What does this fold into?
Amino acid sequence: MKIEVWSDYVCPFCYIGKRELERALASTGFAAQAEVVFKAYQLDPQAPAHSDETIEQALAKKYSATTEAMKQQTTGIAQRAKEVGLDYNFDDMHPANTFKAHRLAKYAETVGKEKEMTERLLRAYFVENQKIGYEDVLVALAKEIGLDEEATKAALQDERFAAETLVDMQQAQQIGVRGVPFFVLNDKYAISGAQPKDVFERAIRQVAEEENLKPKLQMFGDESATCDGDHCDF
It folds into this structure.
C-alpha cells in the first residue's frame, strides 16, 4: 500500500501524526508492506529563516491572543506529544522557514535517506530547537545521517529540488489539503490531522483487505535453537 503524507517540519501535529501512523503500521503488521512517501507543505512560506520571537509570541501575534494563552496551547500539545514518546521543547522554539528543509528532504530521497532525513529534521526542530531554516544547520543534520557534505550543499542550491517541493505544494492545493498532517492511502482514502492510532489502524486494514495483503507475522523470543537447511543454531 502507498501512503502519502503532506507535512511541514514546524507543524507540531505533523510529528505526532507521523508517530501515530508508525505505531498503527507496527500494530497491524503492515509496516513492511507500506510505502510511506513524504510530501512538502509550508504553513508559512513568508516566514524568515529564523525569528527571534518565541513560538508563543509569534502565535499570539498571528491569532491576536495573549502569550499566556498560547503557552497553554503549546503545553497541551507537548502533553499529547509525550503520549507518543516525543519530548517537545517549546520554551526555546522559534519560527523558521522550511523551504530549504523540504529541498533537503527531496535530495535525501534520491539517495534512499528520505525517512531518516524527515525524522532528523522533525527531531531537530521540536526536541532540540535547532535552527532548521539555516543552511549550515541543514548540512550538519544531513551529515549526521550519512549524506555527503558537498553534495548536500549543492542540493540546497539545485533548482530541481526546489521545483519538486513546489509540485508537492501544488498537488496539495489540487486535492484540497487545507491543513497538515494530511495522509492519503492508495489515492483513495484520506486522514486529516494527527488522529489517534486506531483511526490509522482502521484505514490501513481497509486498504489491506482491498489489496488482499496479509500482515507480517509478529515474532516472540529470538531465533536461537532453530535449524535451517545449512546448520542448526544451538
Remarks:
- The mean pLDDT is 94.
- The chain has nine helices and six strands.
- The two ends are 38 Å apart (CA to CA).
